[in-house]
């Protein structure tokens, strides 16, 4: 890793923070003249989402990465006052427990993954998800451009909330090494958890942010690996190990949702101008590409609150303002409608039906019930609305894989915590000291993980070297077939993989059965153009050290032509069959 490029990257990451805040101030000011109490977190989220939408538009116009990255900030040249005002803006109060939070978050950010000779992570549940995200990021930078397709299944539109990974590439293209990407992951982790800390009123309620970071987990299987307990009926897993570390889009979705919801509750109580609902709606309108489940639950919840206020106070224009902003989502929803079997009916959250909600989550229900009792009448509409969505989430499944439905309930959990943070009653502050009851299972599981100090290799040194060779010797739109390992070197090339890991394809609702038949028969794969398929591989990759016995060496040699890169074979030529294995 070149020290100079690493320094330039870090400088750009930190400079982007005030630029995003300034962009957010401009957008906020255009819609609703900012108030003195408007937090920097709201400006940052507004600016970041505006920036990512602009980046997406520029990529759809096939602009180069230099223009994509910096052009959205050119608008600030005409609004320089907004940028200069940042240096006179009062910084948030930093209490001793705030400094401790930053230390915890920074230490966790450094563990997400490391790169020395190999790419490793201590998070067992991150073994597969990390490969998926690295592959997507590689495809954005080195692949065939936008509209994006699945890098594991070319020809299929990418129906995944990809803004978090798009954000990563706006830094990474400056110095695209795996070590630098590790730094970018750590930076984004720290930024998002900083947003969550202040959106959860962490200065006033020191334990609320930890309830989100370490929440989840069950006392019935205390200390067990949450990912392994899903199949045993314990779906309420530790958020840290199964969601926050592994599912990057969920973390961005939680941060954006928390900022929006906090602002909404403050708007609702302070009777601010209705036009601010337009901004709240616009931010939620971008949520399909941030995180679909959290965005859906947040948007529906706020709509229920707005409608209730409109009926009781006869201010119907509030509903229209909110819906007008939220209609932005219709521009992005078509990018996410490619999944099959996403919506279905069920009778109870199937992952935990054998154990039951009370066995998994009695400690969460108890804490929130006590909060409701403390807040009394003023909170009825909040808890009743969220309770209705909770019941709906047990009958309408919005995921292909059963366990993914947890994101619906995670969003409800987040909204209650944000609401808690906006309350100023002394009884709420006293009650929040019971929160360790909620997050102790997750805390203990994290302790076990770091006590054992295991490391899991996602890509070894040979795989990293092979990925670079493949990228240097193929074109951006070349399709490569390889044994369908989730961490195939092909996933790091930016080249589309003809048939990716089957478990990932299944969980994303992709209809892959016809292509799997081609994948398993090399003679048919070599004559792919004669089959009824729009996608054919240009190459296959079968390295000498391949462990997976999906293909036979003699079949590879009989149907494909070797290239100068070891293990890379070209479709379209015939090599003499070798009967020796």
In short:
By secondary structure, this protein is mainly alpha-helical. The protein has helices at 3-31, 40-60, 65-70, 80-84, 96-109, 126-142, 163-172, 178-199, 208-213, 226-229, 239-244, 248-270, 275-285, 292-313, 317-326, 357-375, 380-393, 406-422, 426-431, 436-452, 461-472, 502-507, 513-520, 522-526, 553-559, and strands at 114-115, 119-121, 149-150, 153-157, 343-345, 396-398, 456-459, 480-481, 539-541, 561-562, 568-570.
From the structure above, extract its key features.
581 residues, mainly alpha, 4-stranded mixed sheet, 3-stranded antiparallel sheet, 25 helices, disordered C terminus
What does this structure look like?
This protein is mainly α and 581 residues long. The chain is built from 25 helices and eleven strands. The chain has helices at residues 3-31, 40-60, 65-70, 80-84, 96-109, 126-142, 163-172, 178-199, 208-213, 226-229, 239-244, 248-270, 275-285, 292-313, 317-326, 357-375, 380-393, 406-422, 426-431, 436-452, 461-472, 502-507, 513-520, 522-526, 553-559; strands at 114-115, 119-121, 149-150, 153-157, 343-345, 396-398, 456-459, 480-481, 539-541, 561-562, 568-570. The strands form four sheets. It has a four-stranded mixed sheet with strand order 8-9-11-10, covered by helices on one side. Helix 6 packs across helix 7, helix 12 packs parallel to helix 18 and helix 13 (275-285) runs parallel beside helix 15 (317-326). The relative contact order is 0.11.
């Amino acid at each position: 890793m070149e020290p100079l490029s690493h320094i330039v990257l870090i400088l750009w990451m930190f400079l982007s923070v005030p630029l995003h805040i300034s962009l957010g101030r401009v957008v906020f000011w255009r819609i609703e003249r900012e108030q003195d109490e408007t937090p920097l977190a709201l400006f940052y989220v507004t600016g970041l989402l505006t920036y990512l939408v602009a980046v997406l538009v520029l990529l759809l116009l096939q602009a180069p990465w230099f223009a994509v990255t910096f052009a959205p900030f050119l608008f600030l040249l005409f609004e320089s006052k907004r940028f200069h005002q940042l240096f006179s803006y009062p910084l948030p109060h930093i209490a001793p427990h705030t400094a401790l939070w930053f230390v915890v978050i920074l230490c966790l950010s450094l563990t997400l993954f490391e790169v020395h000779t190999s790419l490793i992570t201590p998070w067992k549940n991150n073994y597969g998800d990390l490969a998926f995200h690295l592959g997507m990021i590689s495809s954005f930078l080195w692949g065939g451009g936008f509209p994006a397709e699945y890098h594991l299944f070319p020809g299929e539109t990418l129906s995944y909330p990809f803004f978090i990974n798009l954000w990563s590439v706006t830094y990474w293209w400056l110095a695209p090494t795996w070590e630098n990407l590790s730094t970018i992951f750590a930076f984004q982790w720290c930024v998002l958890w900083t947003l969550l800390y202040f959106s959860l009123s962490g200065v006033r309620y020191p334990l609320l942010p930890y309830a989100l970071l370490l929440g989840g987990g069950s006392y019935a299987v205390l200390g067990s690996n949450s990912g392994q307990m899903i199949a045993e009926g314990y779906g309420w897993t530790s958020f840290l190990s199964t969601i926050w570390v592994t599912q990057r889009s969920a973390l961005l979705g939680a941060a954006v949702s928390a900022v929006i919801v906090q602002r909404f509750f403050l708007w609702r109580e302070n009777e601010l101008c209705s036009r601010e609902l337009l901004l709240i709606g616009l931010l939620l309108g971008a949520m399909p590409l941030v995180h679909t489940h959290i965005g859906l639950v947040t948007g529906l919840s706020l709509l229920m609150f707005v409608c209730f206020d409109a009926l009781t106070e006869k201010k119907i224009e509030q509903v229209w303002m909110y819906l007008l902003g939220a209609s932005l989502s219709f521009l992005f929803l078509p990018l996410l409608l490619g999944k099959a079997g996403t919506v279905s009916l069920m009778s109870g959250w199937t992952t935990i039906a054998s154990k039951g909600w009370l066995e998994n989550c009695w400690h969460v229900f108890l804490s929130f019930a006590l909060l409701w009792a403390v807040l009394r009448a003023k909170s009825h509409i909040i808890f009743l609305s969220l309770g209705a969505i909770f019941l709906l989430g047990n009958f309408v499944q919005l995921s292909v894989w059963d366990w993914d439905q947890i994101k619906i309930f995670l969003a409800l959990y987040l909204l209650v915590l944000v609401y808690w943070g906006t309350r100023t009653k002394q009884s709420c502050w006293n009650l929040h000291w019971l929160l360790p009851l909620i997050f102790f299972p997750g805390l203990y599981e994290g302790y076990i993980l770091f006590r054992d100090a295991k490391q899991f290799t996602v890509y070894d040194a040979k795989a990293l070297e092979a990925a670079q060779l493949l990228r240097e010797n193929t074109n951006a739109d070349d399709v490569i077939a390889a044994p369908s390992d989730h961490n195939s070197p092909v996933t790091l090339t930016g080249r589309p993989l003809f048939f990716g890991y089957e478990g990932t394809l299944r969980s994303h609702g992709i209809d892959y059965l016809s292509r799997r038949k081609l994948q398993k028969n090399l003679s048919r794969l070599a004559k792919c153009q004669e089959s009824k398929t729009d996608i054919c591989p240009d190459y296959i990759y079968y390295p000498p050290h391949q462990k997976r016995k999906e293909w036979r060496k003699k079949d590879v040699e009989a149907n494909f032509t070797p290239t100068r890169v070891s293990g890379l074979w070209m479709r379209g030529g015939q090599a003499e069959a070798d009967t020796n294995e």
